[in-house]
Design a protein that fits this description.
Number of domains: 1
Distance between the termini: 20 Å
Bound molecules: NADP nicotinamide-adenine-dinucleotide phosphate
Largest sheet: 7 strands, parallel
Strand content: 15-25%
Order of helices and strands: EHEEHEHHEHEEHEEHEHEHH
Number of strands: 11
Helix content: 25-40%
CATH topology: Rossmann fold
Number of helices: 10
Structural class: alpha/beta
Oligomer: single chain
Strand order of the largest sheet: 3-2-1-4-5-6-10
Shape: globular
Amino acid sequence: MKKVLIIGASSCLGSNLATYLRRHYLVYGTYAHNRPRIENVPCFQMHLDDETPILGVLKTLKPDTVLYCAGVTDTQLCERDSDLAFALNATYPGTIASALSRFGGRFVYLSSAKVFSGSKGNYVENDFPDPQDIYGSSKRRGEEILKRYENVFILRLPTIFALGSLNQRSMLNRLLRQLWRREQISCISDETRTFVSAHDLCHAIGLLVDADPIHEGIYHLGASHSDTYYGFATRMARIFDIPTKLINPVSGADFHSQSHHHHDLSLGLGELRKQFGFEPEKPDQALKRLQVGLKKGVFVPSS
Ligand SMILES: NC(=O)c1ccc[n+]([C@@H]2O[C@H](COP(=O)([O-])OP(=O)(O)OC[C@H]3O[C@@H](n4cnc5c(N)ncnc54)[C@H](OP(=O)(O)O)[C@@H]3O)[C@@H](O)[C@H]2O)c1
């Protein structure tokens, strides 16, 4: 059985991926501060800094694939501490990929639609990246560093709707909790995004873990449909039987400074479809799957 090491198994996406991938691979996880408890996924603490003994860890575990889910994802923290953002989102993934290349392992990096400015939308893999903020620039720098190594797969993610093992981590958890309490919420109605479920993310990562190395390179986890946060939240409310009048449309300009206002960050489905025949679920289907999972008390519904 292939071994997969998830760096940042405590992240919202990492915990979803660990829960899904353990069905097919031997999965190990790392965390920095928040120990995840995922059955059959041994996790150990590995705080990334300049002293982290990456080589020793890889020598001991010999993973077939390292899946890098750590990072600074809070865009405001990135603006306040750009050194930390560039270290976690670019330098350390490069260090790990470099060490891994000695053992012939594969490196999968989760990048972001925010490597683009949002001036165009429906971005495909060969569109030229033009990040506007520190988060996007640090993810782009990570991509550039990783280009030096073989057997690296970069998956640019849109907005993933996921329930994580740590409640506070997931935007969706927060949104649902407020709506279930019948609290009024504000959602941006003038910025376009692609929304893809954690289930589709897990499926796409499974394809990359098993892909032939000749398929290495950049992929977009895109879709043919896009929406605003307001549109997504009202769609979800309808499916979950929550009154849509609790959701108030607001402008993105009220949330971010003008320079970081990403109008249309939607990702097109290009290479994943072309190379692997990948198709994400339709939004209603994905939300209904999520609803079924929630009723069963699981955060990654089985396929
Ligand atoms: N969520 C999305 O929709 C989305 C979209 C585009 C791209 N991405 C990318 O996908 C990845 C996962 O995103 P997420 O939202 O799931 O992340 P998240 O929940 O914010 O978690 C961040 C992760 O980074 C780890 N971390 C922070 N500082 C660390 C350090 N010094 N050393 C080692 N680990 C450290 C955290 O570990 P502890 O919790 O143990 O401290 C945690 O596992 C990120 O690289 C992000 O850029 C996510």
